[in-house]
Amino acid sequence: MRIVLHTCCGPCSIYPLGVLRNMGMEVMGYFYRHNIHPFTECMKREATLRDYADQMNLKMIWQKGYELEEFLRAVTFREQNRCRYCYHARLKASALVAKKGKFDGFSTTLLYSKFQNHALITEIGQDLAKQYGLKFIYHDFREGWKQGIETSKALGMYRQQYCGCIYSEKDRYYAKNEE
C-alpha cells in the first residue's frame, strides 16, 4: 500500500515511519506548514525534518508558502475549537496530495502524540478518506512515545515544546511565567 504521511516534525515522525514501513507500506511524507508559528519555529521544524528524511530515505513533499493569515482568520473567535480546524486543514491537504498522486491512503504523525485528540483526528481522517475515495490509516502510535523521544534525543534533533500554533505556544509558556 502506498500512503502519504502527514509529518508535523522530525521527532514525531520517527516511530510512525518505522511502524508503517514494518507493515509493508510505501510511505511518502508531507510537511504542512501554515499552522506552525512563528515562522522561525516553522523553519526549525522543517530543517530538522529535512535532515531526518534524508537519513531515512523518506521522500517528502514540502508545502509551499506560509498562510499565517488564513490560519488566524479561520480560528479567530473560535480559539477553543482551533484544533478541529487545524486537524481538518492538515488532513485535507494530505488527502488531496494522496488523491493527486494516486496513493491508496494517508495517515498522520499527529497520532503519535499523547497530547492530540485521537478520536477527533480519526473522525476527520475517515470522513476525508470517504470523500476522496482513499483509506485513512489509523494506528495508535502513542505506544512508541518513549522510544521516539529517546531516539530523537540520541540523534540530537531539535525538539519543539508546543504543538505548533501561536495559541499552543501561549498555553505552553504563558502560565509558567505567571507562577
Report on the structure:
The chain is α/β, with parallel strands linked by helices and 179 residues long. The protein has helices at 14-22, 39-56, 68-75, 82-100, 118-132, 145-154, 166-178; strands spanning 2-6, 26-31, 60-62, 105-108, 135-136. The chain has one domain (2-178): HUPs (Rossmann fold, 3-Layer(aba) Sandwich), CATH 3.40.50. The protein is 51% helix and 11% strand. It has a five-stranded parallel beta sheet with strand order 3-2-1-4-5, with helices on both faces. Helix 4 runs parallel beside helix 5 (118-132). The mean pLDDT is 96.
Secondary structure: elements and pairs:
Layout: E1 2-6, H1 14-22, E2 26-31, H2 39-56, E3 60-62, H3 68-75, H4 82-100, E4 105-108, H5 118-132, E5 135-136, H6 145-154, H7 166-178
Parallel strand pairs: 1-2, 1-4, 2-3, 4-5
Helix pairs in contact: 4-5
- The shape is globular
Uncertain spans: none
Q: Summarize the main sheet.
A: 5 strands, parallel
CATH-assigned homologous superfamily: HUPs
| Total domain units | 1
CATH topology: Rossmann fold
| Topology as a string of helices (H) and strands (E) | EHEHEHHEHEHH
Share of helical residues? 40-55%
Report the count of strand segments.
5
Q: Could you give the order of strands across the largest sheet?
A: 3-2-1-4-5
Arithmetic mean pLDDT: 96
Number of helices: 7
Query: Termini separation (Å)?
Result: 50 Å
- Indicate the CATH architecture: 3-Layer(aba) Sandwich
Q: What is the gyration radius calculated from CA atoms?
A: 16 Å
Assembly state of the chains shown: single chain
Measured by DSSP, the beta-strand proportion falls in: 5-15%
CATH class category name: Alpha Beta
Overall structural class, as computed from helix and strand content, comes to alpha/beta
